[in-house]
Amino acid sequence: MKVLVADRQLVRPGDCLAILEEGIISNEIKRYPDKHIYVLDNKVYSDVLGIVYIEDKDINVIPLESVYYPRKDDTVIGIVDSIGVTSWSIDIRAPYKAILPGSDVIEGFNPITHNLRNYLDTGDLILAKIAIFDRTRDPMLTTKGKGLGKILEGVVVEIKPSKVARLVGKKGSMYNLLSSKSGCDITIAQNGYVWLKCKDEYVTKVLIEAIRLIELKAHIRGLTEEVRVFLESKLGEGK
Amino acid sequence: MSITPEKEPLLPRIQVENIVKSIKKGERIDGRGLTDYRPIEVILNPITKASGSSLVKLGGTQVIAGVKLELEEPFPDRPGEGVLQVHAEFVPLASPSFEPGPPDENAIEVARVIDRSLRESKAVKLDALAIEPGKIVWSVYTDIYLVDHQGNIIDTSMLASMLALATSRIPELIKGENGYKVDHTKYVGPLPINTLVATVTMGIYNDVIIVDPLLEEEAVIDSFITIAIDESGRICGIQKRGMKGFSRSVLDNTIEIALSKGRELVDLMKKILNNPSEYMKPLVSE
Amino acid sequence: MSGKPVLIRDGLRIDGRKPEELRPVRIALGVLKNANGSALVEYGNTKALAAVYGPREALPKHISLPDRAVLRVRYHMAPFSTTERKSPAPSRREIELSKVIREALESVVFTSQFPRASIDVFIEILQADGGTRTTGLTAASLALADAGIPMRDLVIGVAVGKVDGVLVLDINELEDEYGEADLPVGIMPNTGEIVLLQLNGVLTSGEFKQALDMAYKGVEQIYKTAKEAMYRKYYKMFEEVR
């Protein structure tokens, strides 16, 4: 494979990233949606405006912007949007509204005796996992799991879904840095939310600043170090 | 027919509580004081084809106002006056909750509030716009285009409209055998203006008065008042909005605040109009 | 102003351009806060602002498709955009152009990735001076790129005209009104595929081929400006940090 672009280069939809040496020349488009590339006539193209990452023979494009698209097992934070008889409708900032069944939250759920509104009301924030999702129906959530359920304390910050991966970092490196330096309880949701539980307002403010820094400089090399320096200057060497 | 609206945008309860807590402490979630306006940016004459135009950014809210003059018949009861028309479009570009279609009751209300404020204060010298009294007069169309909604549409639209009108020019008139024709490529002079007008919009929450509400604040607050002030400090328009009432003393306070903030906005407009070339920047900056 | 103006004099056009010359093109991405993606594109005095919302819930539900996203495209002109004020209600022309632009975008957007959702594209012409549908099309495709919507390629539009017997690139309003032909074209810059094509007027087949060649050259130049605009948006993000 002959690669035509440099690692961390800005690429646009339709830009040719590489030429494949072997393989059948086909004039049908083969897509790799997760990598944001497609192959046509033995050439590899980007399908979004984003940054290309090249590792060995692996080409991946991370879009600069994107809307969150649900995936099974993703951890998400959502807002209760409306309440039905047997389930809640949850807004997870995705192209589809998610459903949280009453039976998932209430033991021995019975729509006649249990009023869903007494457990979760409109405007409540919840931490949940996507239990089921396929192309034919809306995602179904579950709050069965450690730490999942209604969010009662702390601060929830919105971030761009395309920056979630950078906030976690390779093998969790950025996440670990943020946690250890701030001493805060941090939960990162795949749909672009971060839930922070810190000891005081000042630490919360500094942490939010660090998150904004990561959002803005997501594709710059040396970001982890820059964040480390920033946190140490504001919070000291760590708690 | 007007129907109770759905609650938009959907804010998480925690954020609503945050906003309420801040207001009780006399603060805003964006760090402003209760009576502070967000930063205002102005570009004059972005639409060179119009008689006058402006782009105003109030924080994140962006409005483009365009003024066009056309020949029309006057109103039968005002034969010696030009006609003033104000129209507002909340185009779907501006917000995820705007749908394409004719202006809804909110857009119509904004247009009419601004229309009344301009009309009652006689901001535009309509009696100088009659070409043949009773037969042909200038009709001044002000079109308000909201392109990005982050709260306080009315004040942004009023600033944009007033600046567009104050920088408008009258096109050349050519008299032929069949009547008059407009040459939109030549201008003969400025649109005559009597006074500048500004509106001050305030939200009222538990008797606390907040100037220039943010989009998030508008979702929490359910009582608003807009007061129009002219150059001489006269009140030339009031509109109460929202599904909650307020006391007389709160009202008196809003008037005081409006007189002071209205003066500030009028002074800002004067500053801009005294130095218009500084504000004639291209829409796309390099 | 009555009567047809002289459109070509000494080989130059009414605004001083050579026949194959574009107007100055200015492009900016990400100009609106609320939209998922946005772009402002100017070809000379023609200014188009486009915003994209999506992929988002398709409402009303009955418009959604089971295996792909629906594209909703609205081409609309602001009342102050034209020489004489235009009524804000959608005209038949705006309805036709909305369809033609949507179909052009359908050929590039990978809609199968978002079943049952909607991708909404809103184009507002802020000032009209010829070539509004092609300026709008370019703005729409850049707004889609700005929103991170996966596409095969961008789409760049440009209109070729024939005035006083001469083929000219990127017509302005006068050339459109008084010329003999108006050929708006939309092209994918990396593949050369044509996704929008209309002709209003009369051309010989030889002229048509020439006009298309002109369009391709114009698209190449506009694409260069678009690429610079995308870089600028990316680098501008760093200045916002401090």
Compact overview of the structure:
Chain A: It is found in: Cytoplasm. The complex is a heterotrimer of chains A (239), B (286) and C (242). With 239 residues, chain A is α+β, with helices and mostly antiparallel strands.
Quaternary state, please?
heterotrimer
How many helices of chain A? The count is 5
Proportion of residues in helical segments of chain B: 25-40%
CA(first)-CA(last) distance of chain A: 48 Å
Which chains make the largest contact? B-C, 39 and 37 residues
Task: Fill in the CATH topology of chain B.
Answer: Ribosomal Protein S5, domain 2
> In total, how many beta strands of chain B?
12
Q: Structural class of the secondary elements of chain A?
A: alpha+beta
Write the element-wise H/E pattern of chain B from the N-terminal end onward: HEEEEHEEHEEEEHEEH
- Overall average residue pLDDT of chain A: 91
Question: How would you characterize the overall build of this protein?
Answer:
The complex is a heterotrimer of chains A (239), B (286) and C (242). Chain A is 20% helix and 34% strand. The radius of gyration of chain A is 21 Å and the shape is flat. The longest helix of chain A is centred in the last third of the chain and has 16 residues, at 201-216. With 239 residues, chain A is an alpha+beta fold. Chain A has helices at residues 102-105, 164-168, 173-182, 201-216, 223-235; strands at residues 2-3, 9-11, 16-19, 30-32, 37-40, 43-46, 50-55, 58-63, 75-83, 87-91, 98-101, 125-134, 137-142, 149-150, 155-158, 185-189, 193-197. Chain A has three domains: 2-62, OB fold (Dihydrolipoamide Acetyltransferase, E2P); 75-150, OB fold (Dihydrolipoamide Acetyltransferase, E2P), CATH 2.40.50; 155-235, K Homology domain, type 1 (Ribosomal Protein S8, Chain: A, domain 1, 2-Layer Sandwich), CATH 3.30.1370.10. The termini of chain A are far apart. In chain A, the strands form four sheets. In chain A, strands 9, 10, 11, 12, 13 and 14 form a six-stranded antiparallel beta sheet that branches. A five-stranded antiparallel beta sheet of chain A has the order 1-3-6-5-4, with no helix packed on it. In chain A, strands 2-7-8 form a three-stranded antiparallel beta sheet, with no helix packed on it. With 286 residues, chain B is an alpha+beta fold. Chain B has a single domain (27-276), classed as Ribosomal Protein S5, domain 2, CATH 3.30.230. Chain B has five helices and twelve strands. In chain B, strand 2 and strand 3 form a beta hairpin. The termini of chain B are far apart. The mean pLDDT of chain B is 92. With 242 residues, chain C is α+β, with helices and mostly antiparallel strands. Chain C has one domain (14-239): 2-Layer Sandwich (Ribosomal Protein S5, domain 2), CATH 3.30.230. In chain C, 29% of the residues lie in helices and 30% in strands. In chain C, helix 1 packs across helix 2 (132-146). The longest helix of chain C has 35 residues, at 205-239. The B-C interface holds B 46-50, 53, 60, 62, 64, 66-68, 70, 87, 89, 91-96, 100, 102-103, 141, 143, 145, 147-150, 182-185, 282-285 and C 1, 26-28, 32-35, 38, 40, 42, 45, 47, 49-51, 53, 56, 74, 76, 78-85, 88-89, 120, 122, 124, 126-129.
